[in-house]
Amino acid sequence: KNEVEQSPQNLTAQEGEFITINCSYSVGISALHWLQQHPGGGIVSLFMLSSGKKKHGRLIATINIQEKHSSLHITASHPRDSAVYICAVRNNNDMRFGAGTRLTVKP
Amino acid sequence: DAGITQSPRHKVTETGTPVTLRCHQTENHRYMYWYRQDPGHGLRLIHYSYGVKDTDKGEVSDGYSVSRSKTEDFLLTLESATSSQTSVYFCAAGYDNQPQHFGDGTRLSIL
After folding, report:
1. Between vectors from CA A99 to CA A94 and to CA A53, what angle results, nearest 5°?
2. Closest chain B residue to A86 measured between Cα atoms?
């Protein structure tokens, strides 16, 4: 079993829909990251959080340390949000990545 | 990402040949990382560096070596490439011990 599990693996939505991507982990962590990988392959860091909630534009990331769970929400989704979203957890010098959630937003 | 350049972006080579991938950064980050990305797997750490000439192994280091002779450059070498090393390789860099900025990836095919 992977230490970082993401669900769903694939997600298709209509433009404007509210999107939720989930991440569960089984190890102790000092921080959790959400990354975005565009079809061209480049990876961008979206959030780093160790507690509570962070918001940037239409993106919201939450984490529940007790439940070892994080969610990434996208409000008013747009086709340009189509990408692979990756959850990663950090414990000291070690970082483990989920396999990613492929999001497709249709116009 | 800004400041991280990987070269080459694509490479096809044969089993048994040596291959070197280069990562160049312009932001003076102390930490640099090499990952591989394979279908069904998350990014997996190959090696990382915490300073010039300071490197350490990651989760999947067998068959790979690295060198960092300058802050800005981190080289990944496959001494004798095998088909199992066909993958997409990502370099990353950060000012503390976590990757904050990623390169655009190198697609390596070993036939």
Report:
1. 70
2. B42
Number of A–B residue contacts, CB under 8 Å? 48
User: Among A1-5, A9-13, A48-52, B5-9, whose mean pLDDT is lowest?
Assistant: A1-5
State the burial class of residue A72 (Cβ atoms within 10 Å of its Cβ: 0-12, 13-18, 19+): buried
Cβ–Cβ gap B42/A98 under 8 Å: yes
Return the DSSP state at A54.
E
Residue B23's pLDDT band (cuts 50, 70, 90)? very high
Name the token pair of A78.
């747009």
Query: For residues A20 and A85, is the Cβ–Cβ distance under 8 A?
Result: no
From A41, A93, A97, residue closest to B42, measured CB to CB: A97
DSSP result, B26-87: SS--SEEEEEEE-TTS--EEEEEEEETTEEEE-TT-TT-EEEEEETTEEEEEESS--GGG-E
Pair B97, B81: CB distance under 8 Å: no
Q: Which two tokens stand for residue B61?
A: 């280091």
Does B43 reach chain A within 8 Å, measured CB to CB? yes
pLDDT on residue B99: 76
